[in-house]
């Protein structure tokens, strides 16, 4: 959350002259409601099922930069679909997250004590992110342009390639 995946994803797609797609945007467009509304109205399990289908559809039908929601990797099938693809885990520490997002209650998984909950989410997810990642790129103190450059160098991207 707030790591810059959308901004960096768009910059990377532009740099590689490929399309950009975000599965969260796909979900919002298909459901006509925000992610937070889906969480509140249907619960996390229902959202994760929708997210799983959105990720599968995007991986099957998109040849460009693909940004996934932070919880997409919780699903073992999704992690298996990402195997063998160039995947970048954009990381940041909680202090950077507070600066960037304020960790406000608009994020459904951070409704109470956002910094503490952010740390707990990251502790639970970090291993999964690292498991699927081809490269881990720290975003702390870097501009989106600097992060994009590090991603290009980390993956040695010189020509358009599929990037999840």
Question: What would you note in describing this structure?
Answer:
The chain has 164 residues and is mainly alpha-helical. 57% of the residues lie in helices and 9% in strands. The protein has one domain (5-151): Rossmann fold (3-Layer(aba) Sandwich). The two termini are 17 Å apart. Helix 2 crosses helix 4 (44-61). The protein has eight helices and four strands. The protein is globular. Strands 1-2 form a two-stranded parallel sheet. Strands 3-4 form a two-stranded parallel sheet. The protein has helices at residues 5-16, 23-31, 35-42, 44-61, 76-82, 94-101, 114-132, 144-155; strands at residues 20-22, 65-67, 88-91, 135-138.
Summarize it.
Helices cover 57% and strands 9% of the residues.
């Amino acid at each position: 959350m707030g790591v810059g995946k959308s901004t960096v994803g768009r910059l990377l797609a532009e740099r590689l002259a490929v399309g950009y797609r975000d599965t969260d945007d796909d979900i919002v467009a298909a459901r006509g409601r925000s992610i937070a509304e889906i969480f509140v109205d249907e619960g996390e399990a229902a959202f994760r099922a929708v997210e799983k289908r959105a990720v599968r559809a995007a991986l099957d039908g998109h040849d460009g930069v693909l940004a996934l929601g932070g919880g997409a990797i919780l699903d073992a099938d999704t992690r298996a679909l990402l195997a063998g693809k160039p995947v970048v885990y954009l990381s940041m520490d909680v202090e950077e997250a507070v600066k960037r997002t304020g960790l406000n209650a608009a994020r459904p998984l951070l409704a109470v004590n956002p910094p503490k909950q952010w740390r707990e989410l990251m502790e639970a997810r970090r291993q999964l992110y690292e498991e699927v990642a081809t490269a881990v790129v720290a975003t702390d103190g870097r501009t989106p342009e600097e992060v994009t450059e590090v991603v290009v160098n980390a993956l040695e991207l010189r020509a358009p390639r599929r990037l999840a």
